[in-house]
């Protein structure tokens, strides 16, 4: 059985005068350890779907199972990383990183040591007692990653976590996150508008169409790219070929609106 299954997911938003269908009949599965990207034009329901996978939003139709259970019954299985780091400005980096463990009553000497060691592994040695305002945007996102990983989630949901960063920092963080997730054998779902990012980080790419949001096509990233870091992938011919194929599909979707 697949680690994550979404079956016939549909979702509707209601107002006093209308009903908007954000998602319609979306089905897919994800194996443990896979990195999946969700791409598509604006309004295709990517973020809505991510909210459903997290259990923050109940679908109007269909079911989601993660490790055999609905996402709202999961205990510390899901980590969520957003575009903004949402670090508490009045708390130190150490306090921010440990907050999930504290809230889940998992904080002890061993989990604290593990979380702070991870902070050092991702290049933030010596910043434990500093406050978020003292760090750059890239360093803050690294701290947000450390906070997310501290509770040892099985599934990471990434909602455009690099989009607010400058290009060089973005590329560096893509490599870091890719290598960390592979090393820890984590399953991840990334929502992004950056096609290059999707190709360079993913095992598979799910392309969505809009109005209503629905799964249009699934692309498997070639093995020769999946063995490379995101930075290295961008220089390969197979990357350019896949980019062109998916770009043409995106253009077709835009033209058919």
TrEMBL record:
One of its GO terms (molecular function) is ATP binding. Keywords: ATP-binding, Nucleotide-binding, Transport. Transmembrane segments: none annotated. The keyword Cell cycle does not apply. SMART domains: AAA. Residues 4-235 form the ABC transporter domain. InterPro entries: AAA+_ATPase (IPR003593), ABC_transporter-like_ATP-bd (IPR003439), ABC_transporter-like_CS (IPR017871), ABC_transporter_ATP-bind (IPR050166), P-loop_NTPase (IPR027417). It comes from the Bacteria. This is ABC transporter ATP-binding protein. It comes from Siminovitchia acidinfaciens.
């Amino acid at each position: 059985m697949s680690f994550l299954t979404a079956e016939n997911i549909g979702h509707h938003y209601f107002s006093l005068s209308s009903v908007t269908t954000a998602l319609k009949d979306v089905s897919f599965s994800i194996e443990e350890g896979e990195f999946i990207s969700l791409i598509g034009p604006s309004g295709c329901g990517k973020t809505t779907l991510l909210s459903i996978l997290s259990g923050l939003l109940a679908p109007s139709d269909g079911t989601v199972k993660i490790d055999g259970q609905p996402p709202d019954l999961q205990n510390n299985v899901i980590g969520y990383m957003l575009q903004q780091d949402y670090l508490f400005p009045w708390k130190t980096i150490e306090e921010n990183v440990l907050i999930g463990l504290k809230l889940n009553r998992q904080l002890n000497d061993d989990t604290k040591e593990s979380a702070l060691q991870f902070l050092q592994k991702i290049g933030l040695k010596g910043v434990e007692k500093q406050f978020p305002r003292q760090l750059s945007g890239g360093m803050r996102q690294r701290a947000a990653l450390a906070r997310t990983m501290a509770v040892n989630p099985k599934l990471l949901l990434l909602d455009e976590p690099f989009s607010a960063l400058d290009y060089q920092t973005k590329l560096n963080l893509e490599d870091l996150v890719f290598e960390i997730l592979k090393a820890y054998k984590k399953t991840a779902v990334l929502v992004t508008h950056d096609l290059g990012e999707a190709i360079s980080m993913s095992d598979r790419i799910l392309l969505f169409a809009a109005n209503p949001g629905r799964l249009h096509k699934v692309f498997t990233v070639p093995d020769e790219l999946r063995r490379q870091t995101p930075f290295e992938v961008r220089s390969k011919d197979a990357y350019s070929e896949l980019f062109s194929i998916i770009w043409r599909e995106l253009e077709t979707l835009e033209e058919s609106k």
